[in-house]
Amino acid sequence: MTALGWALMIFGTALLAVAALGLLRLPDALSRQHAATKAATLALGVMLAGLAVLQPSWAWGIRIGTLVAVLAATVPIASHALARAAASRSDALESD
Amino acid sequence: MTILAEVFLGLALLLVLEALRRLPGTANRLVAVDALSACALAACLVAAARTGHTAFLDVALGFALIAFLATVCWAFALRAGAPEEDAP
Hints:
heterodimer, A: mainly alpha, 3 helices, 0% strand, B: mainly alpha, Helix Hairpins, flat
């Protein structure tokens, strides 16, 4: 179980690194945000799943469940607000 | 072998900081700051897994709420009209 939990943690951090790479490689602000937000949400979810495998107790499960709920509720809202703000600006869609 | 988690996390942090340094314009930098807060959350989770203390998860919960508020406030400020060119 420990190996599976740490494998999930490592996979989550690797996903985060891929998200950061997408931030550098993609051409404009909206696609950068598409990479950063979705991949980072998946990365944090996978890491929380690994943590739940590592520490199977109620004290951890409650906090992990709350974190998953908070992330699933807030990250799309923040991403949407940021995308709307970025789309209203002239420097968002030019590729560089 | 589990040190790979910290290695990948450090790689992600370096890439995000490089993006923050290199990308032009306010909107891009806000996206990079958003990714930076995701990296901080991941660091909280790795610390919780290393030490076995649930307190790091409480820190992560508080930080997730703060990062959400900060991103939404910056997005509204950007929409309301921050300057187009980079501030010195």
